[in-house]
Structure formats: C-alpha cells, structure tokens
Amino acid sequence: MSLAVTAEQEDLRAAVGRFLDTRSPLARARELMGRPVQHDPDVWRALAVDLGVHGIGIPEKHGGTGTDVQTLAHVFEETGRVLLPGPLLTTLGLAVPLLLASGDDEAQARHLPGIAAGESVVTVGWLAPGADWDAVGGAATAVSRPGRGWTVSGRVALVLDGLAADVCLVVAGTPAGPSVFAVDTAGPGVTRHPVRALDPTRGLAEIVLDDAPCSPIGEEGAGSAMLAAARDRAYVLLAAEMVGAAQACLDMAVGYARQRRQFGREIGSFQAIKHKCAEVLVEIEGARSCARYAAWACGASAEEVPVVAGLAKAAAAEAFFRAAAENLQIHGGIGFTWEHDAHLFLKRAKAGQVLFGDTTAFRLRLADRLGI
User: Fold this and answer.
1) Could you give the strand order of the β-sheet that contains 149-160, starting from the edge strand earlier in sequence?
2) Domain assignment present for 1
3) Are the C-beta atoms of residues 42 and 86 closer than 8 Å to each other?
4) What is the number of domains present in the chain?
5) Do 173 and 137 meet the contact criterion of CB atoms below 8 Å apart?
6) Which of 291, 201, 289 minimizes the C-alpha distance to 239?
7) Cys-Cys link to 323, which of 229, 249, 293, 313 (CB 3.0-4.6 A)?
8) 173, 221 contact by CB (below 8 A)
9) Range of the structural domain that residue 198 is part of
C-alpha cells in the first residue's frame, strides 16, 4: 500500500463532494440541527446506494467492497467540509470495525449487509454517566437466564446518534468481563432520551436499558479489546473529518479576507491576516499528514495503529480548533452572529477535542507506551 492518493480515491472524493454540495450542504445541517434527530435517511441511503460509501471497509461477502480505510478517510474529509449530520462516523467508524474485530461470522452476516446497503444505522455505547471515555463495561450489566437468553440493564451516556440508530452495540459487564451485545433500540426495555450537545449538528442520546433483550457479539469477556480496535479506527476517521472541516474554515476565512475591505483595501492584504491564514494552513497540512498516515497504517502497519490513530486525532483536533477560532476572528462581528456558519465549525471543533478522549489523554497514552 502507498500513501499516495490514487486516481480512484480522487474520483470518489470529487463525487462525494458534488453529492454533498447538492444534497447536504451546510444549509441542510442547519435545518437538521433544529430537529429531534439530526439524520437525513434519504442522504444516508443515497451515500450507500449511489456512491457505495457504506460498503467501504466491509468485506464483499457481506455486501461491501472490501476497500481500505485510506479510501474511506478521503470521504470523511468531504463530510467534514459540510459538517454532515448523521451516523456516518458512528456506524462506519465504530460499529463496523467493532463487528469485524469480533470475529463473529453470524453477527457480521446479521448486521453488515444492512449497513452496506444503507438500510441500517448501528451505533456503539459504552460510557457510564460521568465516566471517563476509557472506562469500559461500567454503563450496563448483561445476564443470561435460562429460557430468556441474554438481557441487559443500565444507563448508557453520550451515545452518538443514539436516536437515529436501529441497533446499539452495548459494551456491558458480565462475569467474564466487558462484553458486547446487540440491542434493538425499538425493542422492549429500551428508552432513549435526547442529550443537548455543544455541537448541535451531531446527535447525542442517553439510552436506558431495563432487562432489554440482546444478543452477544463475539466472545464473552472480549469487549475491551473489540472496543479498542473500533475506537482506533474511529480516531482515524474523526481526524480525517476534522481536517476537512478545518480546511473549510480556512477557505471561508481566505474568501472573506479577499472581499472584505477596510481602510481602502482588502483585509487579506494586511500582514496580520496573512500570518493568521498561513499559520493555520501549516497546522492543517501537518494534521492532514498525520491523518493520512494513520489511515494508511490501518491497512499496512497494524502494530502502529494504537499510537498513530490517537496522535492523528489529537493533531487534527488542535488544527481544527485553531482554524475555526481564527476564522471567527477574521470575520469579525459578522462571524459571531447566529446566521453565519462560523460558530457551527467552532462548536464542532470544541466538541471534537473531547470526543473519545482529549488531546492530553492521547499524549499520556503515547508517553506510557514509550516508557517516559
């Protein structure tokens, strides 16, 4: 595998970009963020059926294309550019890799074809209220009873796209340790509550489980390892998404600086504005390199992924927040209004900094691995 962008990846990225500009531009994100569920099922299905996005990374025997994470990362750069609402990150970045990591052929055959076809939305929940992102298995407890099978009870917090999901893969405690169970979100014993989030374009929910029927995924006690593998891929795709969003902020700022006039000239001609834009560009390109290397490593250097995935997310989070903040400053007063899109990027950037763990946590993890 090569780090170079292939012609096929460029073509797919261009096609996805055109599709999003037409079907899900920023204006559409604004519409959806005012609704209880930030999800457009028509766009979801079209991305799967017309562009084959959902099948990337899913084996051909389950209806996918078997394409690598590198290709999917290019798609996420485009979705970040328009702050695409909906469960793409949750389903393709968490649920699919978790199912693949389970080694459970039956579970994969049950869930992956529906995802690839755009017919099913699957999320993952593991966080207990007030717990750290790294705390696994404390949100719920699963028990197996004769004649009833497995049921799960507990309160799972901050479930991404929990209201849009058809299935939630819950990491619950069992006597053998944290394990993964598939729960039908419309089934008995399941109650979902919306959670007000800093980022209004990304849906969050709390899922309350009361003896909800569930089916085990993978081996009992293997939940921590399965979730770790899934989170690594989520870090990579989230990093790609944030790079795309950061680039959109820079493009927005440069475009405004070229047209806004002050003191008889475009503000982009002032050295202070030039410096801001140049520094943001350097930071974005560094983050892009990290994100693309991490995506490459997912298919070519698996032993590096636990380190480079988190670092890619950390670098992208810093670059995105810097780009969003400078975009707001360059726009001045108009950038602080509700009607302008700048604040949407800033909120997405700030929320992204802490999603799945903050920058400090990733760097401390690297320090532990290096023994420093």
Assistant:
1) 140-145, 149-160, 204-213, 190-195
2) no
3) no
4) 3
5) yes
6) 291
7) 249
8) no
9) 123-220
